[in-house]
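My convention is simple: the sequence line spells out the residues, with the fold written below as integer tokens. I include a record here:
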Amino acid sequence: MAELQGKKIANSFRPLGSDLCVRIATPVGQVTFWVYLLIGIVLCGGVPIWVELLRHFGIGATPNTESIRTAMNAYYPAIGCAAAVQLAFASGEKKYLNSFSFFAAFFFFVFSGLTLLLEKTPVTPKSWLIGVVGCLLAIAMWWIANGLDPTYQDIGDPDAPLGGSPQSPLVGNTTGFTI
């Protein structure tokens, strides 16, 4: 291993891979995580896509496949970049996770720019594929960013009904109270 000012430089790809695996596996069995993912991210976050799909299938205005593609190309950079920035803020002292987050945000930014350059009328199968892959990658980025968030975990604190450990000191004081 190389040394830098007396400190060993480790391979940070291993802890990154391990951290990503934990973030991917942890929420699989959590109902709250799945409900938020499906309702919040896919259904509500994807409203522009759903609106354009409804329009395409005859409910509302004139069908337009370019509008569906545009909605998809606006959805995935917003979800993907926001989730990447969220992960960067939550990464704490883990530089490798912070770097991964910035790389992901940069990826979504560049990927969305490339889709604008590749947009052609009529919509090509390649542009559909890029839009769908972008949306799936954005949802995966949200999954990674929120996989360990206690907000989406169904396991409660076992001490919550008891108010915590009876050995812990009580907070506050009685200064200023008179009897």
Observations:
- The chain has a mean pLDDT of 85.
- The beta strands are 3-4, 7-8.
